[in-house]
Amino acid sequence: MSSLTSKVALVTGGSRGIGAAIVQKLAAEGASIAFTYVNSAEKANAIVKELEKAGTKALAIQADSSLQKDVAAAVAQTAQHFGRLDILVNNAAVFVIGPIEDADKNTAQYDRQIDINIRSIATAIREAAKYISDNGRIITISSAVANYVGTAHLTDYAATKAAASSYSRGYAHDLGKRGITVNAVQPGPVDTDMNPDSGAFADAMRSKTALGRYGKAEEIAALVGFLAGPDAAYITGASITIDGGLSA
Hints:
By secondary structure, the protein is an alpha/beta fold.
């Protein structure tokens, strides 16, 4: 029997990159899956069909994580559709970088980054707490830059990720009495369309890692799968860095 059989998981931002890898991993472990997407209904529906063909119950939910009402609705829809909620993975995020001299020109992008990278996490956890089963799992995809920035132009993004990890520590105390674990996963550079290993900063980032390479989305998903399972029941309030030695 797979470790997550009979469990229901919601993954925000689950149609691409790390989110899509997490969806596939949790499904492989036996969970029924809901995931949110913003724009590509065709791609989201293709993932649903693929999962259903493999025997997984799946639901794609259109939701903009910059809108807190969409986040709350996605949580409620998941619980209502499947009749329960056991695992929440906060993955949706945006990556806005730039020099301090340009900060005043990018206030709209800054506000959107705050809304998605911070506010949506708080909203999702607060809403999930209404539905999630005792001994459930909440996992937030933060970033290694929450602890180690290492270069210029990442300040605002790094601050949002530090907040994301801090939420996990705080909510671990709030929800621990129900056996619910709350943890953050802090990836380093991972090859996705948001941060490809062929991008403008790729060589510099690669050279900073001990392993000399970008991570794979599946490697992040494997850690999430472990934290979602029964063997991680005594891990909570942790911020686990998985960065190839970037911050070593």
